[in-house]
Amino acid sequence: MPDRGGDPEIQDLSLPELRRAAAGCERCDLYRDATQTVFGKGPAPARLMMVGEQPGDQEDRAGEPFVGPAGRLLDRALADAGIDRAQVYVTNAVKHFRFTERGKRRIHQKPNRTEAVACRPWLLGELARVAPELVVCLGAVAAQSLLGSSFRLTRHRGEVMDLPGSTAKVTATVHPSAVLRAPDRDEAYEGLVADLTAARGVMA
């Protein structure tokens, strides 16, 4: 895979080596307040790779991606779409939790462009090692990390495209947390399942 903003030294690491190296990442300031780096998890190689935005509060504490409410909803949506969650590699575009404190609560804050760019070498390293057939971006931050800042989820949701610099295809849908916030949660959930079902069809 071409560099596309990655780090040649990182690209040459195995997945376990990437995980160990990312644990000490100080490429942006997010490491100062986060509990730990939350690296991807799943089989490698894997036919399907899912990329979210960043770890949330529970993920930050556990050190694993998609273990909080959004992760549980994703697990259910994958099952309803006929996708075996155990065969999916899941990760985030940004590996540290960005938040503001409000009393005892840590409130999620969207990563900025600088933070996403700083984390991109880890994501590209994962892509190179996982070698997926299809990447599903969950939300705009993930999609823009791979497809550029001009990508608009509202315009391109569900489209299947070539992933630049890779043999993989890529598509984008909403992040599960957006389903949890939706005014009509049932309708939003059905839309997510439909997108994931279509994604499964791409790999058929």
From TrEMBL:
InterPro entries in UniProt: UDG_Type-4/5, Ura-DNA_glyco_family4, Uracil-DNA_glycosylase-like, Uracil-DNA_glycosylase-like_sf
Q: Which SMART domains match?
A: UDG (SM00986), UreE_C (SM00987)
GO MF entry, a single one: deaminated base DNA N-glycosylase activity
Keyword line: 4Fe-4S, DNA damage, DNA repair, Hydrolase, Iron, Iron-sulfur, Metal-binding
Alphabetized SUPFAM superfamilies for the sequence: Uracil-DNA glycosylase-like (SSF52141)
The UniProt entry's coiled-coil ranges are none
All copies of the Uracil-DNA glycosylase-like domain together span 39-197
The record, for Pfam families, names: UDG
- Its Gene Ontology biological processes? DNA repair
Q: Which NCBIfam families match?
A: UDG_fam4, UDG_fam_dom
* Family per similarity comment: Belongs to the uracil-DNA glycosylase (UDG) superfamily. Type 4 (UDGa) family.
Q: Which PANTHER family match?
A: TYPE-4 URACIL-DNA GLYCOSYLASE (PTHR33693:SF9), TYPE-5 URACIL-DNA GLYCOSYLASE (PTHR33693)
Protein name in UniProt? Type-4 uracil-DNA glycosylase
Origin organism is Actinophytocola oryzae
